[in-house]
Amino acid sequence: MKLDIKTLLSICVMSLLFFSCSDDDDDVKAPSIGSIEIGVGNSRTGYVGADLHVEAEVLAPGLIDNIWLVIHQENEEEAVTKSEAWVLDKVFTGVYANVKNATFHEHVDIPTTALAGTYHLHLYVTDKLGNQTMSEEEFTVKAPIADNKLPNITIGTAPAQNKVFTNGEKISITGNVSDVLGLSGIYIGLVKTSDALADASVNATNSITLLHTHNFTDPKAYTFSASITVGAAMDNNIVPKKVSWSAGDYYILVKVPGIDGEVGFSAHYPIKIQ
User: Fold this and answer.
1) 189 and 252 in contact (C-beta within 8 Å)?
2) Which of 40, 80, 134, 261 has CA 20 to 30 A from 100's CA?
3) CA distance to 46, 48, 77, 111, per residue, from 86 (Å)
4) pTM of the full predicted structure?
5) Does 2 have pLDDT greater than 60?
């Protein structure tokens, strides 16, 4: 069978494109993981019965497929003999998948049964091409500090009760929070009343985030000013999420965990959105 010149040229072009694409895939760099923050203020410390802050900057030229977090005690045999082993093995996708750059930010619960001691944290990032990078860190889990004092929340300014907001108007709240032992974080959410959420259940997944942070210059006191505009496409979460606005009754809630695991809650500040 004879091939005319046009067919031959087409085959050559397709071959070049195929090998070029293959070479491009081979040249894609493996994911990289920036320095991992563990604990409040990167203290490398967590407390039994409280949550643990984990954060890292991730870059994957081949696009992130998943992020895998593993935590285990350094001396696991001792923990097993006491039936108090704490091992975390969790894969994250969601907002982290199919993007090149991501801030991995999660809070994991340290169970009340966990032993105090030295732990290892492994963070794996796998891209869409199957390349994987792992970073390992060490941190300490300490016994809980019981002071029986909830974090203090003082509100400076807040919307008038049942104030009506329309598209384009800004909802704001200010104040300060403090804790004798230290703050673990602060979350301020706009909660839809009809969702009937317990205060302890309010978080970035089920409310509209006005403010979410775990970074404090002074770990024992923080002055905040938080706001969001009705109709905004994204909220103010650490990793901002899309907002679906709807008319109805809402309230603002300030939620403040201390490093000892005790959580303080503000009063509800009800508003209406039209």
Assistant:
1) yes
2) 40
3) 13, 10, 12, 7
4) 0.72
5) no
CA atoms within 13 A on the CB side of 225: 1
141, 114 in Cβ contact below 8 A? yes
Let me know: does 245 contact 251? Beta carbons within 8 Å.
Answer: no
Q: What's at 273, amino acid-wise?
A: I
pLDDT of 4 strictly over 60:
no
Residue 64 dihedral angles phi and psi, to the nearest 5°: -70, 130
Strands in 132-142's sheet, in edge-to-edge order, are: 45-47, 132-142, 117-127, 64-73, 88-92
For 59-84, what is the mean pLDDT? 81
How many CB atoms neighbour CB 104 within 10 A?
22
* Beta bridge partners of residue 252, listed in sequence order: 190, 269
Which residues make Cβ contacts (< 8 Å) with residue 212, sequence separation at least 6? 185, 186, 187, 188, 204, 236, 237, 238
CA atoms within 13 A on the CB side of 188: 23
Taking residues 197-203, what's their average pLDDT? 95
Q: What is the dihedral of CA 94, 99, 105, 108, to 10 degrees?
A: 40
Buried b (16+ CB within 10 A) or exposed e, 213-222: ebebeebeeb
Strand partners, 101: 59
CA 31 – CA 104 distance, rounded (Å): 13
